[in-house]
Amino acid sequence: MSTAQHMDNFDDLFRYNYRPLCLYALHYLQDADQAEDVVQECYAALWEKLQEGTHVLNRKSYLYMMVRNRCLDQLRRKGVPTESLKPYDTYGIIDDDDAQERSQTEARLWTAIDSLPEKCREVFIMSKRDGLKYEEIADELGLSVNTVRNQISKALKLIKEGAVKIFTFLFC
Length: 172
What we know:
Blueprint: H1 3-29, H2 32-51, H3 59-77, E1 88-89, E2 92-93, H4 96-114, H5 118-128, H6 134-141, H7 145-171
Antiparallel strand pairs: 1-2
Helix pairs in contact: 1-2, 1-3, 1-4, 2-3, 4-7, 5-7, 6-7
């Protein structure tokens, strides 16, 4: 494989897996900055291995394994009890396969949310992530409740359409 092909493949690996890997690490570390640091370190380590000529058959799986191991190492260094070295989500402890699957689903969802028009995204996030009521959002942004309702409806429609497009692009 030429160096240019090698770079293109690595760029694709980064582009399609960075966000899911960060979300995966977040299931372990519960800290977004630490999760990003771990993922960046893993990409750098993989890049070095590839530059040294090491053959890695399934780079995506290898990255997930590296991220998991580095997260566990960080937790151990912090003195987290061994029995607590499991990934978490809002419902509690989940197994590693679920954490991988959920991180990929969450990444697709955030990609769809990021593609929303700015005002629509802002209203949607205030409602769904921050838990604000329509009236609270309207007051804070100086909008009518009906406009907030319409923006959330639009966001849900666009997210659904965007998620279908992203899913189709990645998996079909």
